[in-house]
Structures are given as C-alpha cells and as structure tokens.
Amino acid sequence: MVETLGSVAAMMKETRDPWWIIASAAAALHGAKPITVADVDVLLSVADAHRILPVLGIQPCQGPPNQLFRSKILAKWPAPPVPVDLMAGFEHRVGDTWHPVRPLTRQPIRIGAATVYVPEGDELRRIIAGFGRPKDLERARLLAELTSPP
Question: How far apart are CA 120 and CA 51, in angstroms?
Fold first, then answer.
C-alpha cells in the first residue's frame, strides 16, 4: 500500500481543494487492525476530478446505480498496486435521504517522503459507521478501540 499512497500523494499535488483518503485505507493509516485494504478511496472536489482524470488518462465510470452510495464523478485508477477509487461529490444514503460525505477535519499522515490526508480518527469512525454495512461497522469498532481505554 505504501507505493500506492505515494502515487496518490504525487497525483493529488495537482489539486486545488482539500482531499481525503477514507474507508479501509484511512482506518489502516490510523492504525486500526486487522484491516484488509482492497482499494484506496479518495474524496476530492468535482473541479479537481476534472483536472486530474485527463492527466491520469482515465474516464468516469458508467455503471448501474448503487443503492447506498453515489458520486457526481467516480473513476477507478488501476495503475497503482492497490487500485484507487476517485470520488467527487460522494454521498451515502440513509433511509430515503442522500447525505454528502465531506469531512471537516484533515489530518496529514507521512508515508516516506509523501503526505496523504485522512479525517481525524473520531470523524472517520463516525463516517464509516454511518455507512452501516457490517464491514464498515467492524472498521468503526476497530477505530474506536484505538481511543478507548483498555
């Protein structure tokens, strides 16, 4: 994952707006264990997605709608060792209402010479728990263990 995070950090130097890594990769960066990282989910602005996708030579995904998640722009960057999902205007559904996922905190994490950004631990835990799937609830539990006294 280190090589992938370095690639993400290099790519995101072209952005103008704040961006974050969320979900399993962010939980792993916070130290939650055990976490399986199948892909790296990056939240970014729509404007930055329009800037970066052509540089990467990728197009937004066209697929069937997802009942829980949607993005104004979703693109998959398969080049790094761990695939990267770029999500601009990302929302998740609770009941009949769509909620934007836009973190308020932004914590830098150094990976070698690169810096990536994640929501602070408590905010990340709330975001992930809000997704409501069993794997998300487990990740949220692992994050909570990092800040809970034994």
Answer: 26
Six token digits for residue 91: 């929302």
CATH class of the domain whose range is 2-147: alpha beta
Contact partners, residue 41, CB within 8 Å, separation at least 6: 21, 22, 23, 24, 25, 26, 84, 85, 87
pLDDT digits (tens, 9 = 90+) for 14-25: 899 999 999 999
Averages of pLDDT over runs of 10 residues in the chain (150 residues) are 93 95 95 92 98 95 85 95 96 93 97 95 94 92 80
DSSP notation for 33-82: SS---S-EEEEE-HHHHHHHHHHHT------PPPSSEE-SEEEEE-SSSS
Q: What are the structural domain ranges in the chain?
A: 2-147
Find all residues with CB under 8 Å of 146, minimum gap 6, and list them.
Answer: 30, 31, 32, 121
21 to 18, 28, 93, 94, 140: CA distances (angstroms): 11, 11, 20, 22, 15
